[in-house]
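pinning this so it doesn't scroll away 📌
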Amino acid sequence: MKKIFCLTLIAAILSTMVFYLPPAMSAKEDTAQLTFKKTAVHNKTYSHYTIQKNDVLSAIIRKIPGIQEQDIPQYYRMIKELNPHIKDLDKLEAGQKIVLPAKLKTGGAQTYRVKKGDYLIGIVHRELHITANTQKTMLLIKSLNPSVKDANKLYVGQVIRLPKGRLDGTAAQQTAQPAKIIERDAPVVSLPEKQQVQEEATPAGKEAVMLPPAERLAVLKHIITQMNGTMITRGNYYLPVSKTAQLTIDCSVIPVVELDDRTTLFLDMKNRSGIYLKTIISGQWGNYHVVKIDAKDDMIMILKKIFKNSKAYAITRAEKPVGIGSTPVLEIMPDWLITKKNAKQTPAAIQGLRFVYRDNDLLPRAIINFARRQSFMITEISPSTGLVGRPDELYSLPAMTVLPASPAGEFAQALLSYLNVPFEKDVEVRVFSIRQDGFNLSIKADLAVKQGDQKTLLFSRNLPPQFVNILQKTGDKLIFISDQDEPAKNMERILRGFNVVFTSGYFSFSGLDKNQPPYTLGFKGIKIKTDKDIYAVNFDFHHELRGLMQETWSANIIRY
């Protein structure tokens, strides 16, 4: 009887971690051109730090006084610029010395919403009443907004932080303090259920709200599952090492991630597997990997380590809005994107990650569901409760009005009925009379509408020119439509003929205009202005989006 050697590997449960939230950007607005010029670094604006054993950069940054979770990406980039001699900041060695930027402290901060045409020096002059030493103030503003990667890409409606109080030259110099590394948890913003947090940063020294292991695993599992992958957190996972031996892994302590590109990953949360397991796996299977997860890695770092081993996927910071769908077009601004490598289809993005700190920052469920139908998944994450999202909205709407695109006569009848314009059908119109011309001749108008002393006649076919001249002399107004023309053209002729105000073009609706998260819906159509706003489109507008349009913008959608 052959003996089977089982090696059971037990690792520590996932350590706690925190999330960060870069500020959301408007999906489609005019940009406010703000420029921060590079200047020499004053010796009080940075400090030196000696790397200790097991140090990781994200944990070092968190220990800088006053740093918030949303500051980490910007400070990571600043440290990279200050230490060009270090090729890989993720592989720090004990004894190395690095330069750290300081957290500039002020007497407080105020918020400001960027307006069209804004530029930094104008904001400094107008809002802060500062005309001298403005360069120092602009650097201070940048320090207050570390999550803004490029100040030239601020958007109208975006909220930035400005210093408040007196800021003369002396005060500006005193705000720069050297960073001091201290042993304490970094402050983060919590999100109690149903409770909104202030826009101001969490006061320094407040205990961090750490995501429990179960919630942390739930976030990761949700992200992987939406990519058609699986994450196994229960039971055992077996790998045959040879004919007489197999490897048994306890998935409750070493989660296993299986991606749909045939990549399998073992998440070693506290480096408990040792070199032996890595050697066995790397020697036996090319698509199996042990991923070392440091206890202080945040969610993005974990995902980066996972996708580093994937042949098909990558995770990158979102630099511009993502366009989703075509009828209508949805644009959103996630914080991070999971994309397919070497994808031929456009866009390559398959999932967007949004970090939210307030209930008001959650996207409407109609937007989430529409994106999913377009094969783009949106995951929203709270730094304190994990997965979050609005409940499904229930819209009580009648069935969407659909106008028959043809024949043209029926199209006209349906449109006038929807607009509550009274009309007569198949009306006989006398062109020649036996009394005046010696014979009678009548033609049939598809529709006739009486407006005061004038009558408007609608024909879905062309008439001989002499007939048209005779009818025009009577003072009647004539409208001609055709089955050969596009319904949009016929609609414009009908509306113009009956003096109904309308506009044809591309219409864009921004969530920021309604104090909602940054998203934009856009589509081509005809806007009809009556006692309500009516938008006529030639595509099927999904029920949830139609409800969102009605509730948020009082926009009524019809289809032709």
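📌 and the second one:
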Amino acid sequence: MKDLLIKFLKPYRKQIILAIVLLLAQVMSNLYLPSLNADIINNGVAKSDIGYIVKTGSFMLVVTLLLAVCAIASSYFSSKIAMGFGRDMRRAIFYKVESFSPADLDKFGTPSLITRSTNDVHQMQMLVILGLNLMVMAPLMCVGGIIMALRQDVVLSFSIIIIAPLMGVVVWLLLIKATPLFRSIQIKIDRVNQILREKLMGVRVIRAFVRSDYEARRFDEANRDLTRTTLRVNRIIALAIPALIIIMNMSMVAIIWFGGHRIGSGAMPIGNLTAFLTYIMEIMISVTLAMSMFIMVPRAEASAERVLEVLTTEPSIKDPDKPVVPAKKKGNIEFYQVEFSYPDAEEPVLQDISFRAKPGETTAIIGSTGCGKSTLVTLIPRFYDVTGGSIKIDDLDIRDVPLRDLRERIGLVPQKAFLFSGTIADNLRYGKEEATEEELWHALEVAQAKDFVMELPDKLYAPVEQGGVNFSGGQRQRLAIARALVKRPEIYLFDDSFSALDFKTDAQLRSALKSETTDSTVIIVAQRVSTIMNAHQIVTLSDEGTIAGIGSHPQLMQTCEVYRDIVYSQLSEEEIAHERK
């Protein structure tokens, strides 16, 4: 936690120093007031000196005003520092998570990353804002109170030796009991976030299977678990605070009793007793403030560990140490004996995959569900790294090519067409910010999306809700395809991107794509045979993730049993005979 605080508070050194100076002035003013009050009682009231009372009282008002100004200013700067600290930390987490590969994201989990960038950062913010106030004020008040108490009466000051250790024991017991629970609370918040996110994302499935009651019970169980742990912490704190108040009140009674005897014997003036009581109260308040910090520190420490875990995680996919950029960018892709296994998987998903995809040609990937088609495509932009063999682009291993350069050459249309909140134009320009409206309309026309966009009131500037939920599945797919076309990359990757389209639209779209991709390498993952029958080569994967056959449709119909089974399962004898003609 110390390293994290130093790193993110370093830019605010000047503001921190100013806040501490203001806080120091506030504490000194606060400590000086009881002493002035004692002088008024001892000199002004005892001697009936109205002039002295007015003079000293007026000075006390000035000191009080200074105290108020310093308090407001220090709170302002403390808040400003804490908010800037939180902003910088959230930004650092966001940029770090952006660099993570899917495997890195799976390691933490989406709900946990959301909690770490919101709740955990908030805990750190609270530590900073309280630390700049309480952590500085408490020791200053405590030390200053002891010094000023000694000035009033040395004998009565021995009571501090008894009071302080008693309060320290209470705070120590609180730390022992509460620290493990604070760590547990953050994990339980992750669990609540996870279930809530699943509920929101899977609401249609839940309703379709009439599982609302089950999900409600699941959420209630996690929610109650979090509530129970939080209540345990609050009960510990609730026991500690009355214990401290009892110690404070008993101490005040004892001091008044002994102080009364000393006043009666003439050993100390009555004004000194009132000042001494004030200083003792400030000492005990400083201990209570310190307790508040001790309550906050364990929870913030647990949050700091979680944030630091994200910030110190090195992305598993990163730029090469000695990057190489191809002299001529054509878009040739070669898979050479590629093998891939997901982390902790018992068996590889893909084995011994070798083929070439050339510019101006369409390479199709087909196979049964779960054979690794989509996984194969995700290896090209290095979302995952191969665990065996190599993938080359223009005769260079993609692991030797800078990630930015590699991905700028690829136009990916993912299996799940995702649109960002904003407008249609914003989404289409996602890969090419300077694209003109003419280019956008052309891409929409090729993607067979122009007609429905033209019907929208705002056309290109029609609003898109988060995830594109205000469009149908087919409309989202066509907009995602148009987004890739606007980029005009050397390599197009279509990961089952035509599944939501009807056969007529599918055929029209594939026909329009031919003229747009004459110089590009096109790789299509498809479930439907009709989508890829005219591809230059079709890579057929077996259930074991190996290549069962490579060739054109007529060649595979003669040589590949796996491909034939897929064709016969989708097309009738008449359709197959028609295709052969």
